[in-house]
Each structure stands twice: as C-alpha cells, then as structure tokens.
Amino acid sequence: MAETAYKLVLLRHGQSDWNEKNLFTGWVDVPLTEKGRAEAARGGELLAQEGLLPDVLHTSLLKRAITTANLALETADRQWIPVKRNWRLNERHYGALQGKNKAEIRDEFGEDQFMVWRRSYDTAPPQLDDSSEFSQHGDPRYAELGENAPRTECLKDVVERLLPYWNDQVVPDLQAGKTVLIAAHGNSLRALVKHLEGISDDDIAGLNIPTGIPLYYELGADLKPLGAGRYLDPEAAEAGAAAVANQGAQH
Ligand SMILES: O=C(O)[C@@H](CO)OP(=O)(O)O
C-alpha cells in the first residue's frame, strides 16, 4: 500500500519594495515590486507545470503574501479556492529594526550583533515603540491581540505563535487530503521548516528562503517530510537563498 503523502507547498512572497531597498520589514505592510509580481506569477506557473494545484490557501495578514498568492493562483487558474488568513503566519516582528537599512545596521553594530538580531534563534531585537511610524499599534487587523500584540520577536517566538495555527488550521486541511498552499514570509517559513525538518536551534541560522519559488513537501501520516523539501526551480532557489544571506553586505 502506498504511504500516505500529504501535499504541502510553501511560498515566500515575491520581492517587496523593502526587500529591494534592503530594509528590515517585519510587520510593516509593504507592497511587491514589479519584479516581485513577476516572481509570484512564475511561482504559479511552476505549480501548474508540476500539476500541484492547491485546494486551499493559507496566508498571513500582510499584502506582500496575499498579493503573491493571488498572482500565483491567477496564473495557475485556481483563484476560486478557499482562503484562510491569520496573523500567526506573519513575518517575524522585527522590533526597533523595522524600517532600518540592513547594511547600515551591520555597519553601526558590527557583523556579530547584526547576525544575532537577524538569525539567532532566541534573541529578539529591542522592542519597537508604539509611537514609531513603523509600529502596528492600533492597526485594526490585530485588534484581537490587544495589548499582547508583539513589539518584537525572535524566531523562537515565531515558532511558538505559528504552531497552534499549523496544528489547528493547516493540519486538518492536509488530513482531509487537500493540497495546501501557505503563502507567507522568510522567517515564518523558516520557523515552519525548522519544525517540519527538526532543524536544531543553531543550524536554522544557516537556512534562508528565497522569494517567490514554491517549496514542495510530501508529508507522511506523522506529518514529517517523506523526503527533503523540493524547490520547483532549484537553481533559482539556490541563487535566491544566497542573495538573502548576503543582504547585510549590500549598500
Ligand atoms: O526584513 C524582514 O522582515 C526579513 C525578510 O525580508 O528580513 P531577514 O531576511 O533579514 O530576516
């Protein structure tokens, strides 16, 4: 008998305005660039070519993920599928770094501190003040969070807030035999991949997720990957991940 194989596709949004400008973004709701829109459409093309047609979509509450999913599904002719959106799929809240240039932060604080803030598992950047122009304080989409809305997060915080959504909302869709598309972000997807693949707290620092390229997993009945995750365009994914890793060096 064939092994159970749940089908899961992870898609980081295409290039955003602030990816292009090399700014820490987090929960700031920035749009895609034209390049990002093209990446998203190409992502949909890859899904269609592979016959990986999503039955249900889960997105964050941020327009770069929402637009990416819309464009990909339009290309794959799957605009009609049901959609669930949740803040638990949002990018990591980048605290006081939101809106700051990555290369300038690296220059000002040094490579070590920069890497701790950017890729350590359990050290969050300083909190973002509610009065900052880059704060989400008072944003109606986070009303349900009240005073518990994050003002900064480390990756560990993201794992902790993401897993209840994974278990309660995504897993039932997989178990119902649906091909699930999750359109989200560099760090919320790093958190999910860490969980799925059992990557250690140290090793996750070296994992970077490229923009706009579907990452496909087959999961067994125990919800663990049956093999390695597979990017539908592996060459572009390798180049894209290297570009993400290198962002602090780009002036
Ligand atoms: O700025 C951000 O929100 C994220 C993703 O773009 O950046 P990083 O890859 O540096 O964690």
TrEMBL record:
Question: At the top level of its lineage, which domain of life is listed?
Answer: Bacteria
The entry's active site is 13 (tele-phosphohistidine intermediate), 91 (proton donor/acceptor)
Would the keyword NAD turn up in this protein's UniProt record? Answer: no
Give residues annotated as binding substrate. Answer: 12-19, 25-26, 64, 91-94, 102, 118-119, 186-187
Q: Which residues cross the membrane?
A: none
Query: Part of which pathway?
Result: Carbohydrate degradation; glycolysis; pyruvate from D-glyceraldehyde 3-phosphate: step 3/5
Q: What keywords would UniProt list here?
A: Gluconeogenesis, Glycolysis, Isomerase
InterPro entries this protein is in?
Answer: His_Pase_superF_clade-1, His_PPase_superfam, PG/BPGM_mutase_AS, Phosphogly_mut1
What is the role of this chain? Catalyzes the interconversion of 2-phosphoglycerate and 3-phosphoglycerate.
* Family statement: Belongs to the phosphoglycerate mutase family. BPG-dependent PGAM subfamily.
UniProt cross-references to PANTHER family, sorted A to Z: PHOSPHOGLYCERATE MUTASE
Q: What is this protein called?
A: 2,3-bisphosphoglycerate-dependent phosphoglycerate mutase
